[in-house]
Amino acid sequence: MEGGVGTPPETPNEERQPGPVLPASLEAKGLKRSSWGLLIPGIVGGTLVAVYAVATPFVMPALRKICVPFVPATSKQVENVVRMLQSRRGPLVDIGSGDGRIVIAAAKEGFAAVGYELNPWLVWYSRYRAWREGVWGSATFHISDLWKVTFSQYSNVVIFGVPQMMPQLEKKLELELKDDARVIACRFPFPHWTPDQVTGEGIDTVWVYDVSTFRGRGKRP
């Protein structure tokens, strides 16, 4: 009955006609095609998820107001930083610790060294490197935004920054650090402080600032 919503009457068994039977080869091809139809989207989807998971920590910092890209420190930069830490004592922090090479080098020199890094993949890799280098007990790493961390407990501060962030970081450190603290800037100096020491050249240049000195001079208005 056309247009009805009821259940159609059943056809008596003796009147039912068997449907066409597909050859086994065609049936197998259909199943194989169906399997590929599920497998390929699964692979593509899994790949996209993996790419997203890996790329997000690198892309998200670029969407922030101030982006600090990861550029590994050269061996000469690490050497210059370590040289400027000679005769120093107290805990050390590396702001934007990247792959952990500064923190690990400082730990090997006897410092209790801490690194703060926004990229979780770099933090996990840094922890692995610290374990591999045998300094996992004195080199620790945290996933954190530097603007949400207080640095008052550190006597030595290392920073690989970019020019856009240095004025704000300068103010933050001047408010938080104790008078006996030392700040070591790599690649870019602070805009208002006068360095107590400068070593290296080009991208390996390191600027050293003693907090007691720039507070006494009162250089920054």
Explain the overall architecture.
With 221 residues, the protein is of the alpha/beta class. Helices cover 38% and strands 14% of the residues. It contains 6 helices and 7 strands, in the order ααβαβαββαβββα. It has helices at 24-59, 75-84, 101-108, 120-132, 166-176, 211-217, and strands spanning 92-95, 113-117, 139-143, 156-160, 182-186, 197-199, 206-210. It has a 7-stranded mixed sheet with strand order 3-2-1-4-5-7-6. It is globular. The chain starts with 23 loop residues before the first helix and ends with a helix. Mean pLDDT is 78; it is low at 1-16 and 44-66.
Give me some keywords for this one.
221 residues; alpha/beta; seven-stranded mixed sheet; 7 strands
Determine the number of helices (DSSP H or I, runs of at least 4 residues): 6
User: What low-confidence regions span 5 or more consecutive residues with pLDDT below 50?
Assistant: 1-16, 44-66
The proportion of residues forming helix, as a percent range, comes to: 25-40%
Shape: globular
Calculate the mean pLDDT score and round it.
Answer: 78
